[in-house]
Amino acid sequence: MGKVVLVTGVARQLGGRLVRRIQRDPEVDRVIGVDAVGPEHHLGGADFIRADIRQPAIARVLAEHAVDTVVHMDVTGTPLGAGGRTAVKETNVIGTMQLLGACQKSPTVKRLVIKSSTSVYGSAPRDPAVFTETTPPKSLPSGGFAKDAVEVEGYVRGFARRRPDVAVCVLRFANILGPCADSPLAEFFSLPVMPTVFGYDPRLQFVHEDDVIDVLRIALNDPRRGTLNSGTFNIAGDGVLLLSQCSRRLGRPTMPVLLPAVTWVGSALRTVGVTDFSPEQIRLLTHGRVVSTSQMRETLGFNPKFTTAETFADFARSRGPGLLPPDRLARAVDQVAAALPFMGGATAVRTATSAATTTAPAGSRARHTTQSDAE
Fold first, then answer.
1. The overall pTM is greater than 0.90
2. What is the dihedral of CA 197, 199, 201, 202, to 10 degrees?
3. pLDDT > 90: what percent of the chain?
4. CB under 8 Å to 59, separation ≥6 — which residues?
């Protein structure tokens, strides 16, 4: 018999995509999707069980279906439906505790895959240029989804000590983007005008939704020859983008705000329900975060199809033109340059703006920039 895989969080687009995809894997015999609410999308031939992982009933589901592989996707930063931050935290933390307790008692569970986040490293002014999987954060996240992820990983480490016979894989994803992205950062990038911290231009990394599905498939199956899919791995696309580059590629202007006033702006946005502009997200948009992906390639054996820039480009296409579409802005620059011969004409301006769009190297330590990006 093949694997019996249980996937949590299937009411979300990413969980639903994973369920539909792994049903085609020859190693998988049966897929069971679990969520507290019914999914609006199709799950293929998978069995859907409406169950709240915060309740002990999840143990009965594992036992009745002899599940041997668990993929915990229900760790997220955004509420589903009318749920608020409290419901999200309960699902992330209490739900994970209940699920791990059920897995600990189950004699059939042999593999556990956890969807985590690079937000566990936090964002601080004295952070290293690049985080590795073993780099301790300068300051632990104090709230929001980042703190949830830290607590979840703590419970997972405890489970791994109690059940050393279970292969445990923790995937720390960078900011996930794509046409169907529903993360707090995706909501932020969808604002018509994006508030930013005055004087800071952070480096950001992204991972594409398609790559997320591919690496999860690697994690839930037996490791390929020469690879190891147990342990903790950073998952991100190659390269980095500055926040200013993201803004120009979206065609959405920024509104620089002095750091003391950013908290007030975030509170105002949360009040009107525009986005989850949490303190941890403010720190990310102030100091940025870059992680090393060498273990992802050398140990896990995974090479993303999309770079950070390509991931963001696919996301930007799905959001449509902003208030300042890049092509229109480029034409305006050319017109101004043509009217000012002493500046060298449009060709000189095109050369300057093209050079300015170059992505910063992954090891760059710069936090502030005067870089111009016409994209």
1. no
2. -70
3. 64
4. 98, 101, 102, 105, 106
